[in-house]
Design goal:
heterodimer; A: alpha/beta; Udp-n-acetylmuramoylalanyl-d-glutamate--2,6- Diaminopimelate Ligase, Chain: A, domain 1; about 40% helix; B: alpha+beta; CBS-domain; Heat Shock Protein 90; 2 domains; three-stranded mixed sheet
C-alpha cells in the first residue's frame, strides 16, 4: 500500500516526509510497546502508535521501518520531528484512535 | 588454557570474587580429640564416608589431622587402641575463613589433598573444604550466568579470549550517558551507521542494531544511564559488548522470561519496560553471554554471524 493511500484512508496529515509519494508498505504493526515492535523485525512495515517520544523514531530506525502513523492526533514534540527528519523516517498523524486507524487500513488490504 | 590463564580469566570476569573459604566450606564437621582412640577415627571415617578427620583441643583449636593412610598404617601396626595423638599429622595445611577462591584453588593444586580444614584467626576449626565443596560453589556461582548457546564452551572461550581485545582494539566505542530515556538509542544509531559503512548486509545490521538498542535502553532504565557500547566487526562477524556499573540483574533466569520486568510505570508509559528487552536480544543474536548478579556490573556480549538469518 502506498503511503499516499494511508493518508487518504485515515485522513492523516504528513508531518515529515517529502519522500512520501515513492514509499510503499506491505504490513502494519500497531503498538505502544516499542519492545514488541522490535520483536517483529520486518522492514517494510508501517508503525502505528499512540506514543510521541523520540523512541518511536529510534525504533523505526533500528528496524528500517519507512514510516510511522501517530494516532489520536497528538502533538508531536519538535525534537521528535527533527529526529524523524534527520533519520529520514516519514511521520504521519491521524485524528483516528489506534483501533479505528488500524481497522480502516486492514479493511483496505494492509495486513498485519 | 593453562591453570594460570584460567585463574586470570576468573579474576577478569569477577565470577567467583564473592566466594571465600567461609562461604564454600561445610560447617557440619566431625572432629575428634587427641586422646580419642584410632579405632574411633576409623569408625567415623567409615560411618560418615570421609577420608580425613580433623583433631581439635578442648577449645576446638585445630591440632592435627588423621587421614586414611595413617589409619592403614595403624591397622598394619596393630595400634587401633592407641590415642589418635600418636598417629595424627601435626603440621596440617589449613585455610583461613577469609581466604579467596583463588587461594583455595591454588591450595588444591599445590598440595593434592582431598580436603582442607578451615580455621579462624585464633586457630579454631570452623569448617572443612573438599573438592566437592569447591565444585558445588562453582555451580552455585554459575547460577548467575546465563548462556544461550548449545556451543556454550565455544562462546565462553571467545568471551574470555576477547575481553582484552575489547579493551585495546574495539572498532566502535560509544559511552552511554543518558538521563531518563531522552537520548537513549543514539549509540545504537551511531553503531548502525558504522556497521552499514563497514559493508555489512541489511539483515545482520538490523539484528545487531535492535539488540544494541535494547541493551542501551536497559542501561538507561536500570543502570542509571551510565555504561559503554563497544563493537568488534570484521570477517562477517559482529561482536557487541554492552557494560554498565550495576546494580546488576539479581535473577537472570527471570529476566530472560518474556513479560518479566522490574521497570517502573513511568518507563512503561514511554513504551519500554514490558519485559521484552533480554528476550529480544536472545531472539536476534546468534550467541549471547550475560554476566551479572545482585549489586554487580552487568556485561552483555552478543555475537552476530553474517548469513545466519
Amino acid at each position: 500500500m502506498k503511503l499516499t493511500e494511508v493518508l487518504e484512508i485515515t485522513g492523516a496529515m504528513c508531518i515529515v516526509g517529502e519522500q512520501l509519494a515513492s514509499i510503499e508498505v506491505n504490513y502494519a504493526f500497531a503498538s505502544d510497546l516499542m519492545s514488541d515492535v522490535l520483536a517483529m523485525s520486518r522492514p517494510d512495515t508501517l508503525l502505528i502508535t499512540g506514543l510521541t517520544t523520540p523512541q518511536i523514531i529510534r525504533t523505526a530506525q533500528m528496524l528500517d521501518l519507512p514510516a510511522i502513523l501517530v494516532a489520536r492526533g497528538k502533538d508531536v514534540p519538535q525534537d521528535v520531528v527533527d529526529l524523524a527528519r534527520t533519520t529520514g523516517i516519514v511521520l504521519l498523524s491521524t485524528h483516528d484512535i489506534m483501533y479505528v486507524a488500524s481497522g480502516k487500513l486492514y479493511a483496505r488490504g494492509l495486513s498485519g | 588454557m593453562s591453570l594460570e590463564q584460567s585463574v586470570e580469566a576468573l579474576r577478569y570476569l569477577g565470577l567467583f570474587s564473592s566466594l571465600d573459604a567461609s562461604s564454600i566450606m561445610s560447617t557440619a564437621v566431625h572432629a575428634l580429640h587427641p586422646e580419642d582412640r584410632v579405632a574411633a577415627a576409623r569408625l567415623l571415617m567409615r560411618e560418615k564416608s570421609i577420608s580425613g578427620v580433623p583433631i581439635v583441643d578442648a577449645d576446638f583449636r585445630l591440632v592435627g589431622l588423621v587421614s586414611v593412610s595413617k589409619i592403614i598404617e595403624a591397622l598394619a601396626d596393630g595400634r587401633l587402641a592407641d590415642p589418635v595423638d600418636s598417629v595424627m599429622t601435626r603440621d596440617v595445611i589449613s585455610l583461613h575463613a577469609h581466604d579467596s577462591f583463588e587461594t583455595i584453588l591454588s591450595c588444591f593444586q599445590r598440595f593434592k589433598f582431598g580436603r582442607f580444614p578451615v580455621v579462624e584467626d585464633d586457630g579454631r576449626l570452623v569448617g572443612m573444604i573438599t573438592d566437592t565443596d569447591v565444585l558445588s560453589a562453582i555451580i552455585r556461582s554459575f547460577y548467575s550466568v546465563y548462556i544461550h548457546d548449545q556451543r556454550r564452551a565455544v562462546t565462553l572461550g571467545s568471551f574470555s579470549a576477547l575481553s582484552k581485545e575489547f579493551e585495546s582494539s574495539a572498532d566502535f566505542v560509544y559511552d552511554i550517558r543518558c538521563r531518563g530515556l531522552e537520548n537513549a538509542g543514539e549509540g545504537s544509531a551511531q553503531l548502525k551507521a558504522f556497521l552499514q559503512n563497514k559493508g555489512f548486509g541489511e539483515p545482520i545490521v538490523r539484528r545487531a542494531s535492535v539488540c544494541a538498542y535494547e541493551a542501551e535502553i536497559n542501561v538507561c532504565i536500570h543502570a542509571g544511564g551510565h555504561g559503554s557500547l563497544r563493537a568488534i566487526a570484521r570477517n562477517g562477524e559482529i561482536i557487541l559488548r554492552v557494560e554498565d556499573e550495576g546494580p546488576g540483574i539479581e535473577n537472570i533466569d527471570l529476566a530472560m522470561k518474556e513479560g518479566w520486568s522490574t521497570a517502573t510505570d513511568a518507563i512503561r508509559e514511554l513504551g519500554f519496560g514490558a519485559g521484552m528487552g533480554l528476550p529480544n536480544i536472545r531472539r536476534f543474536s546468534d550467541h549471547l553471554v550475560i554476566i551479572s548478579g545482585k549489586d554487580k556490573p552487568t556485561k552483555v556480549e552478543m555475537i552476530f554471524l553474517e548469513g545466519k538469518e
